[in-house]
């Protein structure tokens, strides 16, 4: 499929922003109950995920934001400790699948795709299973009862803590799916979630500096996900964006 500005209109009509990375490379989800989301990795991990039809489950204690689950503004030491204990408990019981709303931001490729040498996987995900991160410039103001314990934090506060990050992370446009570790597959120290059902692989985008042969990746993807499109990205000529390389899109 050649790059086509007509495709951009389809993305806009489907509710996506006009400068979506894939807007001239492929079509948006047909089903409005589905959202297109992205996950960036090194080549090694991306190909492993494709071959094993899985995606890694992230753990709260291992995320790169030190304020993870600690977005509330609490002055008292006791209330801060309650939230830290709740974070520890959450880490032991659940993990999360981390997605981005787009792949065109170069900082994302630098941080998560091995300095632009990696691969971005695009998924169609059931909208009802993911939550959009809220980016705030100030920490959450919330009062805790002096006798509060991790088990009785309000559902509202828990949801705020799970999905609030500093405004400095806005470029990630993050969406999260929270999963029980008991339902994930444990391999060594890592947990994985299957790419099946309400998570379907539909795009594979090689980074601008990725040295993996495009045709080799296409063959591997075709073996496991025959309907997924595979193309290479490049640095934009007129903006600070990562965009599809039209020569590799068909």
From TrEMBL:
Query: By its UniProt entry, which InterPro entries does this protein fall under?
Result: DUF2971
Pfam families attached to this UniProt entry? DUF2971
Highest taxon of source: Bacteria
| Protein name, entry field | DUF2971 domain-containing protein
- Give the lineage: Bacteria, Pseudomonadati, Pseudomonadota, Gammaproteobacteria, Enterobacterales
